[in-house]
């Protein structure tokens, strides 16, 4: 859903996964770049791809993936943590402050968020966006 939403809003999308088999699905959904995190450093590739990601939407259940991706944020970028399992997210304070980066998280959206997401999806289906 994150790939589809980002593409619908005009964003360029990179997908990072520890499973190389997800590449074909990621590309079918509109990802321009696929990073297999077991063979490449996500932060390095994100930074080289377009100067870093404006948003990293971490849906993985391991905090290690969020820790590995954080340095790939562009200045003023945001790391959004969703569905992260146990463990500690460790961020370099200098990279956070000097890069003007943000970190936010949510276990789930509100009912209003869900209605907004459905309305957005419906408008995409009807070609309104």
Q: Can you tag this structure with a few keywords?
A:
129 residues, alpha/beta, Rossmann fold, 3-stranded parallel sheet, two-stranded parallel sheet, 6 helices, 5 strands, 40% helix
How would you characterize this protein structure?
The chain is α/β, with parallel strands linked by helices and 129 residues long. It has a single domain (2-125), classed as Rossmann fold, CATH 3.40.50.720. It has six helices and five strands. The protein has helices at 2-8, 23-29, 42-50, 63-69, 93-98, 111-125; strands spanning 14-17, 33-36, 53-58, 73-82, 102-106. The strands form two sheets. A three-stranded parallel β-sheet has the order 3-4-5, covered by helices on one side. The protein is globular, with a radius of gyration of 15 Å. The two termini are 16 Å apart.
Q: How is this fold's topology laid out?
A:
Elements lengths: L1 H7 L5 E4 L5 H7 L3 E4 L5 H9 L2 E6 L4 H7 L3 E10 L10 H6 L3 E5 L4 H15 L4
Parallel strand pairs: 1-2, 3-4, 4-5
* Low-confidence blocks of residues: none
Strand order, biggest sheet?
3-4-5
Straight-line N-to-C gap: 16 Å
Estimate nothing, just give the exact number of structural domains.
1
Measured by DSSP, the beta-strand proportion falls in: 15-25%
Structural class: alpha/beta
Number of strands: 5
Q: What is the structure about, briefly put?
A:
The protein is α/β, with parallel strands linked by helices. Helix content is 40%, strand content 22%.
């Amino acid at each position: 859903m994150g790939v589809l939403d980002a593409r619908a809003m005009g964003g360029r999308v990179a997908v990072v996964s520890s499973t190389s088999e997800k590449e074909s699905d990621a590309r079918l959904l509109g990802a321009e770049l696929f990073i297999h995190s077991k063979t490449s450093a996500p932060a390095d590739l994100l930074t080289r791809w377009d100067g870093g990601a404006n948003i990293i939407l971490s849906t993985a259940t391991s905090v290690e993936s969020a820790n590995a991706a954080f340095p790939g944020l562009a200045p003023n970028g945001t790391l959004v943590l969703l569905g992260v399992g146990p463990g500690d997210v460790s961020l370099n304070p200098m990279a956070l402050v000097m890069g003007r980066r943000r970190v936010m998280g949510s276990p789930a959206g509100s009912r209003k968020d869900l209605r907004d997401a459905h309305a957005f999806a419906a408008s995409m289906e009807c070609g309104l966006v």
